[in-house]
Specification:
Elements (H helix, E strand, L loop, with lengths): L1 H22 L17 E6 L14 H10 L4 E2 L8 E2 L2 E8 L2 E6 L13 H14 L12 E8 L2 E6 L6 H6 L28 E7 L3 E6 L13 E6 L3 H10 L4 E3 L4 H8 L7 E5 L4 E6 L9 H10 L2 H9 L3 E3 L14 H6 L4 H10 L6 E7 L1 H4 L2 H15 L3 E7 L2 H9 L5 E6 L27 H11 L4 H18 L2 E7 L1 E5 L3 E2 L1 H4 L12 E2 L1
Parallel strand pairs: 1-10, 1-11, 15-16, 15-17
Antiparallel strand pairs: 2-3, 4-5, 5-7, 6-7, 8-9, 9-10, 11-19, 12-19, 13-17, 13-18, 14-18, 20-21
Helix pairs in contact: 1-5, 7-10, 8-12, 14-15
């Protein structure tokens, strides 16, 4: 209990500091500038932890949330949409399948007045590839062969092979444009440095505590803001965040409230507190190293898939705050099909036993399930405890649960040390491809050793076709292959949940599949 009190006390000090930051700004604190601005200051609370402010090293949601609001891309995804629209560019197009050409809007500058030209775009992408930070998103640019800036307002990307997803990647936070004159070409910028041309500019940043923003008066894009200033307050734990939204020291709470906290806050509508549910694209799953026993046996993987009861697990661990998932592609994405439900139907011990018997597998099968509660949230322990109970009670498996801290966990599964482990995914860009291409290769993101030529051919097919019908058919076949081979077992899809104080508007508009908060849509009466 003492630990909780100390954490809350520390968070309260941080909130007071953030409130002071929001209030200062001299005589024009409520002036409508830059992106529009309603004049008010909005304070958002979260338990997220920012990885980096430098786009070359940023590859996590809290970092991308800041980048989304402070940088421009050539194209951007408006809140609530999976169709990109021009941002720093007037237009971009594929003149041929291996060339992506963009014309920039004239007269744009970064927040310090430095002109934004095609040379900055070229520098941005070449810099990311050159630095190739191990925690950064440079791997998403693997199809890019070169980039040139033949004119001040024209940039041309040359691809190694046809890749229709390249336009989506450029429109994601991977494409955040940095000024060539202010960022080092071969190393990361100082940890607190950020200079973009987006609707907001960073005014103060203290890692793990707070980030302060005000409108960028040099911004010339289409975004109009419902507020004048924005503050993110970072909390060490759920209890402190819940207290902050209850006592009004933050206006909005996102990412970090436990299912129990959310349920409790739903009962406080009389106090003006609202719980807003939005669509999510985050997924959780078991990953199987198909080169390591007993996960190297397809029958074992199929029997696990036939046994697991997602509905019961979600009820026990998440109190209904997530949805069951029966394929790798999140619901709401093109080509989504409940392939695991179609193949396995309802959970069945008898059917699972028949699968193992037909393969000559002796039962019970010893399984070690690895998971990490630090990175994926404390409720993960409840999730895997319930999965263990289900598998044990079938009589077909004997399960041991193991966990370790996040850095060791990542290294271990990458080295193939875990036969079965829990993992999660948030797409880098809103295209169904991103739920398959990073997964279905032997050296993919989760290093499962899975190698299926038919699956690789289908990924290549959908990546090189601009025809939605062709792509969706490829996704359908991919989902059938995954359900049959079970290199991954999809478990659930997250919902976005935000909690607001009285007078806060617009939060529902930003709870979309990007899972990134757009500051500008949130207003405060």
């Amino acid at each position: 209990m003492a630990r909780t009190k100390r954490a809350i006390a520390a968070a309260t000090v941080g909130i007071l500091a953030a409130t002071t930051l929001a209030a200062c700004g001299s005589d024009d604190k409520d002036k409508n500038t830059g992106a529009g601005g309603g004049g008010s200051t909005v304070i958002l609370g979260t338990t997220d932890k920012v990885g980096s402010l430098d786009p070359a090293a940023a590859y996590d949601l809290p970092s991308w949330t800041i980048i989304r609001n402070t940088f421009q891309k050539l194209y951007r995804y408006p809140e609530g949409s999976t169709t990109a629209v021009p941002d720093a560019a007037e237009k971009c197009e594929f003149p041929d399948p291996k060339t992506y050409s963009c014309t920039l809007k004239p007269g744009q500058t970064f927040s310090d007045g430095t002109p934004l030209t095609a040379k900055d775009v070229k520098f941005t992408f070449e810099r990311m590839v050159k630095i190739n930070d191990p925690n950064g998103p440079a791997s998403l640019l693997e199809s890019m062969e070169s980039v040139e800036a033949p004119e001040d307002l024209k940039v041309v990307f040359h691809l190694k092979a046809a890749d229709v997803t390249f336009a989506s990647i450029v429109a994601s936070e991977v494409g955040a444009i940095v000024p060539a004159a202010k960022y080092p070409a071969d190393k990361l910028a100082d940890s607190n440095f950020l200079l973009g041309s987006g609707p907001y500019k960073l005014t103060k940043y203290t890692a793990g505590q707070q980030a302060g923003f005000e409108l960028n008066d040099k911004y010339k894009g289409d975004v109009k803001s419902a507020n004048g200033k924005f503050v993110i307050q970072y909390f060490p734990e759920s209890a402190a965040l819940k207290q902050a939204i209850e006592n009004g020291t933050v206006d909005v709470a996102v990412t970090g409230l436990s299912p129990t906290d959310i349920q409790d806050l739903r009962g406080k509508s009389a106090q003006g507190i609202k719980v807003i549910d939005g669509i999510g694209s985050t997924i959780r799953f078991m990953a199987f190293n198909v080169k390591s026993g007993p996960a190297d046996n397809k029958a074992v993987r199929q029997a696990i898939a036939q046994t697991v009861d997602r509905e019961a697990m979600i009820k026990q661990a998440y109190n209904g705050t997530v949805d069951p998932l029966y394929t790798l592609a999140a619901n709401g994405f093109a080509g989504h099909a409940d392939a695991f439900k179609q193949k396995y139907g309802a959970p069945s011990k008898d059917k699972a036993k028949a699968i193992l018997d037909a393969a000559g597998v002796k039962t019970p099968v010893d399984l070690t399930l690895w998971y990490n509660p630090g990175h994926y949230g404390a409720t993960t322990a409840d999730e895997y405890t319930e999965l263990k109970r289900q598998l044990d009670e079938s009589g077909l498996f004997k399960v041991k649960l193991e966990t370790t801290e996040w850095e060791a966990y990542k290294k271990a599964y990458a080295a193939g040390e875990y036969a079965i482990f829990g993992a999660g995914w948030q797409p880098d860009f809103p295209d169904t491809d991103n739920y398959f291409a990073p997964f279905l290769s032997p050296d993919g993101t989760f290093h499962t050793g899975y190698d299926n030529q038919a699956a690789k051919d289908l990924v290549a097919k959908e990546r090189t076709s601009a025809d939605p019908a062709v792509r969706n058919q490829a996704f359908t076949e991919l989902q059938k292959i995954v359900a049959d081979d079970v290199p991954y077992l999809p478990l659930w899809q997250g919902k976005q949940v935000a909690v607001t104080r009285p007078g806060i508007e617009g939060v529902d508009k930003t709870l979309d599949v990007s899972v990134l908060i757009s500051f500008w849509v949130i207003g405060k009466k």
